[in-house]
Design goal:
With 202 residues, the protein is α/β, with parallel strands linked by helices. The protein has a single domain, classed as 3-Layer(aba) Sandwich (Rossmann fold), CATH 3.40.50. The chain is built from four helices and eight strands, in the order E-H-E-H-E-E-E-H-E-H-E-E. It has an eight-stranded mixed sheet with strand order 1-7-8-6-5-2-3-4, sandwiched between helices. Strand 5, helix 3 and strand 6 form a beta-alpha-beta unit. The longest helix is centred in the C-terminal third of the chain and has 14 residues. It is globular. The mean pLDDT is 96. The protein binds S-adenosylmethionine. The site of S-adenosylmethionine (SAM) has 24 residues, from strand 2, helix 2 and strand 3.
Length: 202
């Protein structure tokens, strides 16, 4: 069962100044959608699984001065991604583009997020899951995100597509079939889940 879709027109998308910014890893319009989704929760804390060189981290930090903490997770050289399509992605300069921002904390481990537990990460309002796109990591990162994202926050995944090269779509479709309220933004590879505020028992 595929995820339900929403149209980009329902999201408060703002123009982004791409001057001097690499477009690597993002299809046209996706960074703008990601920024709008992140902004919708007025984030104080962000965790990015798969921060790469920090292009997206810098864009989010620049867009939201209210952010206090941004943890960007990546792997050490030598890590072999589960999916062959990702093997050229391990960065030479992890977090490089965001390193000057004092709010940015680079979290590097041999196996990236797979070496992390909930005690290694701060509570946050946005978790952006864009690391290893194999099933084990997507399930692991989602489980971690669901423990650290505060009520009212949002989990956003990249690489929800049907090219068959990664497992994101299959895993998210399974979560949805099991009852998770995950939505796909049409014409993008982005999907998201809002973490509800605690409901008050009647
Ligand atoms: C598609 S790139 C991320 C792009 C980045 N999020 C951005 O928007 O610019 C995928 C990143 O995930 C990293 N990665 C792969 N396996 C990982 C793991 N197990 N934990 C954390 N990061 C991982 C890769 O090294 C790579 O930097």
């Amino acid at each position: 069962m595929s995820l339900p879709q929403i149209d980009k027109s329902t999201i408060d998308i703002q123009p982004f100044n791409w001057r001097g910014v690499t477009r690597r890893f993002m299809n046209p319009g996706e960074l703008e959608v990601l920024l709008a989704l992140a902004g919708s929760v007025q984030p104080l804390g962000v965790v990015e699984f798969g921060v790469n060189e920090g292009r997206t981290a810098k864009a989010i930090l620049d867009a939201f001065p209210g952010i206090r903490t941004y943890q960007g997770i990546d792997v050490l050289p030598g890590y072999v991604t589960t999916k062959s399509v990702q093997r050229g992605e391990v960065p030479q300069r992890p977090g490089y583009l965001a390193r000057r921002d004092k709010r940015f904390d680079l979290v590097l481990r041999a196996n990236g997020s797979l070496d992390l537990g909930v005690g290694d990460l701060l509570a946050c309002d946005v978790a952006f899951i864009d690391g290893d796109h194999g099933r084990v990591a997507v399930e692991h990162d989602t489980a971690l995100a669901r423990q650290i994202v505060r009520p009212g926050g949002i989990i956003i995944w990249h690489d929800y597509h049907d090219l068959g090269t990664v497992d994101v779509r299959e895993v998210l479709d399974e979560f949805h079939a099991a009852g998770a309220d995950i939505v796909h933004v049409a014409d993008t590879w982005l999907a998201f889940e809002r973490i509800p505020f605690q409901s008050v028992a009647a």
